[in-house]
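Write out the 3D structure for:
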Amino acid sequence: MTLLATVEDAPPAGVGPMLRTWRERRRFSQQELSNLSRVSTRHLSRVETGRARPTADMVLHLADHLEVPLRERNAMLLAAGYAPRFHDQPLDDGSVADVMDGLRHLLDAHLPYPALLLDDAWDVVDANAAVDALLVGCSPALLEPPLNVLRICLHPDGIGARIRNRDDWAAHLFHQVAHRAAHTHDPRHRALVEEVTGYLGGTPSPPRTSGPVLTLELETDAGVLRFFSTSAQLDTATDVTLAGLHLETFLPADATTRAAFG
């Protein structure tokens, strides 16, 4: 490929070891990455050892095949001597206003059922009015910003006592955050794994379910409400913060829950 510029003298500042680290994290051999990226193993070896200086396009080409998070792709570009390509704007910045308006419209469109917009650390960015029904009995301290869904569900002062199938729902949440931590290697996600493990007293077994989907079973004054959840992300995000957002929506899993919200 023409995306590589060879340098015989000075090695690049750290981008080679960074690429090698991410290749090893994905458990790819150089040959496997070569097959995926169509970059020869000789070129990969020279990039990783600093004997070849990759262009910015080559860095991004390899990072894409390694599924490197956008924030880390920026770090790779900087290490290779290039400017970052991916913006990282606050969610109240005017440049992302139209996207945020669209996501908030989806929250309201999901009424009368609960929906939340979460960042990549499970902090609540926004929610529709129906979410309030899920938070009854939660300690006010846990409802102070930033609200964290994992903490609300699993902290002793959260809503865990009202979740009838708490063990299975907690295992579901644990395996979600553990999977994300293994994929991103983000220190924030590893810290969440430790926090959740502390609430659960260890690593839980995978959740059990006798139905087609795992449901959240929540005890309320109106009886036991049952929901199943769906999650959606922005597949085309080129902003670091937007790429971490996901929309979590809850739908009734039985007629009683549908009637309670209808």
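The chain has eleven helices and seven strands.
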